[in-house]
Amino acid sequence: MATSSIFHQFTQNIEIPKLTEENRAELEGSLSLEECKEALASLSNGRSPGEEGFTVEFYTEFFDILGIDLLESLNSAYEKGHLSILQRRGVITLLPKEESPLIELKN
């Protein structure tokens, strides 16, 4: 059986809700400072969302100082249709498990 046929069979009775024009208008567009702050509050502590190394706690602590600049940066990205190269980058740090040989792939 072809993959597209299997997919069609699996999805044929699924009703996927669609946004109304009113919902779409509400969700599209520039962010507000409050939306930015709410998004920040939803992130897990101890994480650094970008390669600059600033943690969620840093942004939360200094949001009153940095919030407007962060908001302007995000809204600029929305207007351009893409994030800057620095905003699109991330760093994955491998953390070895304690007392496990580093040569093993599962570590």
Helix- and strand-based class?
A: mainly alpha
What low-confidence regions span 5 or more consecutive residues with pLDDT below 50? none
Q: How large, in whole angstroms, is the Cα Rg?
A: 21 Å
Estimated helix fraction: 40-55%
N-C termini distance: 39 Å
Mean pLDDT, as a whole number?
85
- Can you count the helices? 6
Q: What's the shape?
A: flat
Strand content: under 5%
Would you list the SSEs in sequence order as H and E?
HHHHHH
Number of domain modules: 1
Number of strands: 0
Question: Major beta sheet, specifics?
Answer: none
Write a concise keyword list for the protein shown above.
107 residues, mainly alpha
What topology emerges from the helices and strands here?
Layout: H1 3-11, H2 21-27, H3 33-41, H4 56-61, H5 63-80, H6 85-88
Describe the structure in your own words:
With 107 residues, the chain is an all-alpha fold. The chain has one domain. The protein has helices at residues 3-11, 21-27, 33-41, 56-61, 63-80, 85-88. The two termini are 39 Å apart.
Short characterization:
By secondary structure, the chain is mostly helical.
